[in-house]
Amino acid sequence: MSMKAVESVVESTGVRTSALVGRYDHALDPKKRLTIPSEWRELMGNPGYIYAMPDRRERCVNLIPMADMDVWLDKIRAQSLFDPAMNAVLQTIGQNSYLLSFDSQGRIRICDKLLQFANLTTTVAMVGSVKMIKVWDPAALAPADVVDQAALDSAMSALPF
Fold this sequence. Notes:
single chain; 161 residues; alpha+beta; Chemotaxis protein chec; two-stranded antiparallel sheet
């Protein structure tokens, strides 16, 4: 959805949408930087930073907007500071997560550890996952121009409403 369309929805309904949706296939530049689409950056409030962490179940990298990560971090901060089990959990998450800064052109540099984890070499597929962006090796996904209706039906059926 273009920003003009988003602005039109906001003006006509008074409701601001911030769902990160769609798919963008982009090449990594020679310095292994990735440009996040300007529409997504605007929906995230043009942040200076975004969090990156490996997905816990799939070979992709999750890019989590600051606002959503802050909600999660508030829940983590409410846990006991001196709980050894919780500290082990937080250390594991911390050593595998990164705070990435956007440059003036909306690019980020995902660290080599995460690029290797997700097999990201020259071209990546960025998939909007409503609250975050999932960065995939395009070969791991169905072609961008194909609708997998069975997968869509399964996903919609899993919603709790």
